[in-house]
Amino acid sequence: MISLRHPLGWLLRISALVTFVYLLGPLLVIVAASLSDTGYLAFPPQGLSLRWYRSALADARYVDGFLVSLRLGATVALISLVVGTSAAVALTRFRFPGRALIEAFFLSPLVLPGLVLAVALTLFFASNPILPPGMTRLVAAHLVVGVPLVLRVMLPVLKRVDQSVEEAAQNLGATPLQAFFLVTLPALRPGLFAAAALAFIFSFDEVEMALFVGSVREAPLTVVLYGAAQMAFDPTVAAVSSLLILLALVLMVAQQLYAQR
Description:
The chain is an all-alpha fold.
């Protein structure tokens, strides 16, 4: 460890500060621009007003898009949590040939760009119409990334759980299923909350798959924002973007508070 009194310690502190400013600067600019009183995006804001937030909340396009994204994110988070946790249990509790290869295969979508996955899924559904177009296809597309996200969180969580406690519960008369739900699952709650929040945020904020695979009739909020930005990038778009930033921030803070408790 390097003391902060050391010159290198101050250099590391300044580097970390510059990195945080670089990462958070664009978000702060969007939030500040959404509070401007002018009819166009301006930074620094010229006057402070909440008129663009009122305009966004009164616009049916944004409200409908938010409800679609909320339903989409909740569905993807729930299915990803069940499938990803089940896969994590199988990969950590059972020993079988090719286990490492299967784990790498499940996690491989995380290393691919979203645009590549969107184009690949579009071609796949075009040649194999096994699912009806619209929300069903979009949920299936988001699960391609949502399940690996949950799996990536739950694998280290399950590896840290002491299996002897579960074995002790079975020695006291519990079945393996009862031991898992009564002993192991409560110990996994912080990890489950974090995994579900991560899958929800991904699905709620994702735009590439929604553009390629989604339906115009049930457009998520990100697609509505993309279309509004293409036509006229007014402060209303910045206001909706700020609300999305706030939602993601609230979920992450809630997850951290829950994990600490």
